[in-house]
Amino acid sequence: MKEVFIVAAKRTPIGGFMGNLSSFTASQLGAAAIQNAYESIALSPKYVDSVYMGNVLSAGLGASAMSLS
C-alpha cells in the first residue's frame, strides 16, 4: 500500500441564498479552494496524485462541480 498524506484541508466560504457568492459557480469556488490549498503548502503540484472534494446540497449543479474544478 502506498503511503498517504493529507497536506492541506480548505473550504469555501459560506454564503446566503442569492448573497455575495451567488455570482460564482460551484466549480469556481472549488477551484479557489484548490488554489488556496496549493498556496498553503511547500509542495509542487506535480507531487500531488489526487485531490478529494465533497459538497452538500448539490441539486442544480449539473456536471460534477468537483471534476470541473
Automatic annotation (TrEMBL):
SUPFAM superfamilies: Thiolase-like. Residues 4-64 form the Thiolase N-terminal domain. GO terms for molecular function: acetyl-CoA C-acetyltransferase activity. Belongs to the thiolase-like superfamily. Thiolase family. Keywords: Acyltransferase, Transferase. This is Thiolase, N-terminal domain. InterPro entries: Thiolase-like, Thiolase_N. GO terms for biological process: fatty acid beta-oxidation. It comes from the Bacteria. Pfam families: Thiolase_N.
